[in-house]
Design brief:
- This protein is an alpha+beta fold and 619 residues long.
- The protein folds into five domains: 103 residues, Beta-Lactamase; 135 residues, no CATH class; 146 residues, 3-Layer(aba) Sandwich (Rossmann fold); 70 residues, Helicase, Ruva Protein, domain 3, CATH 1.10.8; 58 residues, no CATH class.
- The chain contains 19 helices and 23 strands.
- The strands form six sheets. A five-stranded antiparallel beta sheet has the order 2-1-14-13-12, sandwiched between helices.
- A hairpin with an 8-residue loop joins strand 18 and strand 19.
- The longest helix has 27 residues.
- It is elongated and about 95 Å long.
- The N and C termini lie far apart (68 Å).
- It holds the Pfam family Sigma54_activat.
- Keywords: ATP-binding, DNA-binding, Nucleotide-binding, Transcription, Transcription regulation.
- This is Sigma 54-interacting transcriptional regulator.
- It comes from Flavonifractor hominis.
């Protein structure tokens, strides 16, 4: 009974399990381990045992010549009538040619690692056979297409894919499915005459139980560690990246002890070449956990599951924000969103509008970007001839454009005192006067506002009207910074990655676990906006479908003020502009992001200040 239980456990886990006794003899070899090491194959196709013979059509897709292909050299390709004096080890090679048949002209294409595009393809006819060979660096996928069928082989760092057609009848007599495995079918070995093993539908396998572990696997660091464990001279290995038959695996070796003696060992394997599958499994699991948490909190707070599809997060602070936002959206009161810059106030405002007035327009107004002397005309519009330069037919303002919907006044603390009186009147009476008009304009507008300032402090300093404060401060919603909701970082980074890939019109990419770990160790002073910038750069830099820590660059706080080489080069105008940009950035940093304080420190007019912000791309 105990033996059956152990067998059942080893078969249901996702990792490969290999057990050996004290003498190194294999006593258990799980199905997953057999798939990883090539004992059984999952392709569903078959071919008998054999070897490559003269006249056979050999198709090769090698993403790094000489690495994980048995030590191929440029000279070995002469067997296919390919002689290229510029070919070097490490190059990407696509080749199709008749084996040891000098009179047949081959198909051939090569690139260096530095000049290879994201997808390198070779297509054409070799004899009467149409073939297509591809190295996809984005997906880390090698593909050989022949007779209308695709033969795929994924790789982590390097791999050589091989398909062989019988020279007599054109049937596929060999295809590579796992690369170098227990089968010991390296590309070079097969070209040198080594016979290959048969493949079938996955039901037949090598007899590995009872075999010597050290005969099955080529000598490497893994076999050396296993030898030390079995001899009692080595401790366990836990989750380390080691090669086994030239395939990178995540390996653990645990000794089996009885009365202090080593009676054997257990080897646990995770195939890192299937990283895309592991990431999908991890992502699915995290999504299910997050969704379960989200549904539970939504149920307790009575928030529909689809209420905030684009306001990402399921941490307790964000669940509280969503609950209050849902309540506020169903009411008709004015709402003000507060929190640091970059926390997602604009996105939440759109979500509230969608819930409360989905059929009406949503007009977003950045109050800090409107010059002081144009504020009234921009917000409330004007009639023809109201001032010099006015359009003859007049112009509607933002309030009229938002009629029947929502107006979102972002950075409302930047509204000049002269316009605050008119805004107060519009909020109270749902009507206003265009600049130069004698008759009022009635509107049905819901007002949302946002600020990263302390408005009550601004009231005390005489910069913001107290009566306007109370009018807009009916329902206040504080959005916490990212550092206070760090558990949302995975969902946010995944959502941003998907959005940016769609914007770039490129295949989807995923963050590796170590990439997410790197993101978790940053404090994110710029909040979600900063995270979006980091993800956007990583998407652009990454050459594969998996974003690694090396693709992520996070600028340390204050690093942007360091003096680069361009400070001392270029024209006088360029150097002056750089000095001006540095002064503005330093003033904003010293003022904690408060633009009014920065303007006061720099002694610059508001219109000029915001013009320079736009010029230098400073948010």
């Amino acid at each position: 009974m105990e033996q059956k239980l152990i067998d059942a456990i080893t078969e249901i886990v996702d990792e490969g399990i290999i057990c050996v006794d004290a003498g190194g003899i294999v006593t258990r070899f799980s199905r997953k381990a057999k798939e990883m090491t090539g004992v059984v194959l999952q392709g569903g196709r078959s071919h008998p045992a054999g070897c490559i013979r003269p006249g056979d059509l050999v198709l090769i897709a090698d993403n790094m010549l000489g690495d994980d292909d048995g030590g191929m050299t440029p000279e070995d390709l002469a067997l296919l009538n390919i002689q290229d004096p510029e070919l070097r080890c490490g190059d990407v090679v696509l080749a199709a040619g008749r084996f040891r048949t000098p009179e047949c002209r081959p198909l051939y294409r090569r690139c260096t690692q530095y000049t290879t595009p994201q997808k390198l393809t070779l297509e054409g006819s070799c004899g009467s056979v149409d073939v297509s060979l591809t190295v996809d660096r984005q997906e880390k996928l090698l593909t050989i297409r022949v007779h209308g069928e695709d033969y795929y082989l994924r790789y982590l760092r390097s791999m050589a894919h091989l398909v062989v057609l019988d020279g007599a009848d054109g049937a596929v007599k060999f295809y590579q499915e796992k690369g170098c495995t227990i089968r010991q079918e390296d590309l070079k070995d097969l070209l040198d005459g080594r016979p290959f093993q048969p493949k079938n539908d996955g039901t037949t396998e090598f007899d590995v139980v009872g075999r010597d572990f050290f005969e099955l696997f080529q000598p490497c660091e893994l076999t050396r560690r296993m030898d030390r464990v079995l001899s009692g001279g080595g401790g366990p290995t836990l989750e380390e990246e080691l090669y086994i038959n030239k395939r990178l695996m995540l390996c653990s070796i645990l000794p089996v002890l009885e009365d202090g003696r080593v009676e054997g060992a257990v080897l646990k394997l995770t195939d890192l070449s299937e990283l895309h599958k592991l990431l999908d499994q991890r992502n699915d699991l995290i999504t299910k956990v997050e969704q379960a948490s989200l549904n539970a909190d939504n149920h307790v707070m009575r928030v529909p599951a689809n209420a905030f599809p684009d306001f990402v997060g399921s941490s307790p602070p964000i669940q509280r924000v969503k609950y209050l936002a849902y309540k506020a959206a169903r009411a008709k009161c004015n709402i003000i969103l507060t929190g640091e810059s970059g926390t997602g106030k604009s996105q939440l405002a759109r979500e509230i509008h969608r819930l409360s007035r989905p059929d009406g327009p949503f007009v977003e107004v950045n109050c800090s970007s409107i010059p002081r002397d144009l504020f009234e005309s921009e917000l409330f519009g004007y009639v023809g001839g109201a001032f010099t330069g006015a359009l003859a037919g007049g112009k509607p303002g933002y309030f009229e454009q938002a009629n029947g919907g929502t107006i979102f006044l972002d950075e409302i603390g930047e509204i000049p005192m002269s316009a605050q009186v008119k805004l107060l009147y519009a909020i109270q009476n749902k009507r206003f006067y265009r600049v130069g008009a004698t008759k009022p304009t009635d509107v049905d507008v819901r007002i949302l506002s946002a600020t990263n300032q302390n408005l009550w402090q601004a009231v005390g300093e005489g910069r913001f009207r107290e009566d306007l404060y109370y009018r807009i401060h009916v329902f206040a919603l504080y959005i916490p910074p990212l550092r206070e909701r760090i558990s949302d970082l995975y969902l946010l980074s995944r959502s941003l990655t998907e959005t940016i890939c769609a914007q770039y019109d490129i295949p989807p990419k995923k963050l590796s676990g170590s990439a997410v770990e790197k993101l978790l160790h940053h404090t994110w002073p710029g909040n979600i906006r900063e995270l979006g910038n980091v993800i956007e750069r990583a998407v652009a830099v990454s050459e594969s479908s998996i974003i690694t820590p090396e693709d992520i660059e996070i600028t340390p706080i204050g690093a942007e003020t360091e003096v680069p080489e361009r400070m001392f080069g270029g024209t006088l105008r360029e150097q002056l502009e750089y000095a001006e940009e540095c002064a503005i950035r330093q003033a904003l940093e010293a003022a904690g992001g408060d633009k009014r304080q920065a303007m006061k420190q720099l002694d610059i007019k508001k219109s000029s200040f915001y013009e320079r912000l736009r010029h230098y791309g400073i948010n």
